[in-house]
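Please predict the structure of the following assembly.
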Amino acid sequence: MSPEPRLIEVRKNVLKQNDLVARGLREEFRAAGVFVVSLVSSPGSGKTALLETTLTRLRPHYRVAALAGDLATENDARRLARSQAPVKQITTGTLCHLEAAMVQNALQEWDLRQLDFLFIENVGNLVCPSAYDLGEQLRLVLLSVTEGEDKPLKYPTIFNSADVAVITKIDLAAAVEYDWQAADANIQAVRPGMQVFRLSAKTGEGIAAYLKFLEERLAEMRSTV
Ligand SMILES: Nc1nc2c(ncn2[C@@H]2O[C@H](COP(=O)(O)OP(=O)(O)OP(=O)(O)O)[C@@H](O)[C@H]2O)c(=O)[nH]1
Ligand SMILES: [Mg+2]
């Protein structure tokens, strides 16, 4: 037998195991009434910056917490902790994505019933995280204006694994001559009908509409529990 089919088999088993854990987590989140949002993007697209603003602005009204995934360092957890929300870092070593079991592990000491929102920042990568369900109710894929408009076409799988797209760093759009029409067309080519937010964590532009959307999604989930 050639080695390739065995590799595929192992990968399938890992994914199957991840899906089982993710399914359990999703049920747990629902039962606890916590709305779980994950963020995926390439490195440096602004996940932590957006999360810090999100936690800071939601915290006076909601019970919020966050997990931050990176290969190494506690840097993002330190930045997010400035919001005063409970935060934990997950370091993956050599792994380029979070897995459901890592999320489950990190949450062991937290009482999910004490939370309204839990945010999970995935490892910065537009490839690996797409195949790993984390049990989240909403997956946001971020793309910053400085990355160019073509990322949805180059990395369609991650856009297909996400629910909503967020174009970040819009304060820099003019400086990089960002082509809004091309960006929208590329997102819609990969995911027709995909909802898109445009915002800047630096200036705050677009943040209110995005937060309103999250609040509505939490209310919607609670009304169907
Ligand atoms: N001008 C501008 N800069 C931003 C904005 N959001 C983030 N940045 C900057 O972009 C850089 C990367 O932001 P991060 O929030 O660390 O990005 P990240 O996606 O969390 O990065 P990784 O966790 O390493 O993948 C930092 O220098 C931020 O200050 C924004 O809205 N506008
Ligand atoms: Mg980060």
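The two ends are 50 Å apart (CA to CA). Strands lie at 35-40, 64-70, 87-91, 117-121, 138-144, 164-168, 195-198.
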